[in-house]
Specification:
Blueprint (H helix, E strand, L loop, with lengths): L2 H20 L7 H8 L9 E5 L5 H9 L4 E6 L4 H7 L6 E5 L12 E7 L8 H11 E12 L6 H17 L4 H28 L4 H6 L12 H9 L8 H10 L2 E8 L5 E8 L3
Parallel strand pairs: 1-2, 1-4, 2-3, 4-5
Antiparallel strand pairs: 5-7, 6-7
The protein binds S-adenosylmethionine (SAM).
């Protein structure tokens, strides 16, 4: 395993260790947000796989809501063992510690794949997409969330450039130090970005502007600690423009590729079906 992948594991292990213990109340899971944007169901009949399940919130939701399905939850972080322990009562989920870039499964075994915010943190996202294609049955579906590069939003594009520069420094910090830094920063970012965006969002016509403001999704002064840690602590961050991502999916024989932007975060929801013909 590459050093940068070990750093990714260390960074998320710290975050998940906190989040698994904290039981943070969340208004909606990522799964629910993504599903609400799509006309087709993410969960198909049969076996589903979540790649990069992190603290397991989406997996828990899916396993409870679709109790007749069987699920495989994959993450390369050893914190998946804690998640497995916590979700042991759910008998329709199997947890596997493995890399998204080398899934230990045979070809064509899975009916649908869901992966939120994972492949862009890997050393080779295209290889991850090719692995999803490999393990899916023909006509199986993939629902992914991947960061966008904000090529069509000047405010976010230039904010991103500044953050990318700062990240060079912050990814060197020990996770504990970075987490404390994010906890101090969160209320300021909330006041500077989330509160004005929230107010603008209520003004009907200014909703478009509110959507362009970074961190517009904060609802509480300390809501942003985990997101800031994710932004400043993960060593790898790959970002996609619409055409590039569409092309990457099609190269892996996915058809009917649907790309939609999640309104209040920074990325693409991709929904596609495998078509091996
Ligand atoms: C941003 S978190 C997303 C977690 C979860 N999907 C969620 O939405 O809460 C990224 C997750 O991907 C995992 N991850 C990163 N690179 C990976 C890889 N190569 N193979 C498997 N998991 C990976 C990390 O350990 C982390 O749990």
């Amino acid at each position: 395993m590459k050093k940068i992948e070990q750093q990714t594991i260390a960074s998320y292990a710290y975050l998940w260790n906190k989040e698994i213990k904290q039981e943070r109340h969340i208004h909606k899971t990522h799964f629910e947000v993504v599903q609400s944007m799509l006309d087709s169901p993410i969960v198909q009949k049969g076996i589903g796989m979540e790649i990069g399940c992190g603290p397991g919130r989406d997996m828990e939701f899916m396993a409870r809501a679709y109790s007749e399905n069987k699920f495989i939850a994959v993450d390369f972080n050893f914190s998946i063992l804690e998640v497995a322990k916590k979700l042991r009562p759910l008998k329709n989920v199997f947890f596997v510690r493995a890399s998204a870039l080398a899934l230990p499964f045979k070809n064509g075994k899975v009916d649908f794949v869901y992966s939120f915010g994972v492949l862009h943190h890997t050393v080779d996202p295209a290889k991850g997409i090719s692995e999803i294609d490999r393990i899916l049955k023909d006509k199986g579906t993939a629902t992914l969330y991947l960061y966008e590069n904000h090529e069509d939003n000047r405010i976010k594009f230039y904010s991103l450039k500044a953050v990318t520069l700062l990240r060079r420094l912050t990814i060197q910090l020990p996770p504990r130090v970075l987490y404390s830094f994010c906890a101090v920063l969160s209320p300021f970012i909330y006041l500077l970005f989330s509160v004005p965006a929230g107010l603008l969002g209520k003004l009907g016509k200014a909703k478009g502007l509110a959507d362009k403001i970074p961190f517009n999704f904060g609802k509480h002064p300390f809501d942003l600690v985990g997101d800031l840690f994710d932004r400043f602590g993960t060593p790898i961050e790959v970002r996609y423009g619409r055409e590039e991502l569409d092309g990457t999916m099609r190269r892996e024989k996915f058809s009917n590729v649907i790309l939609k932007k999640i309104p209040d975060t920074a990325g693409w929801v991709v929904y596609a079906a495998k078509n091996s013909k």
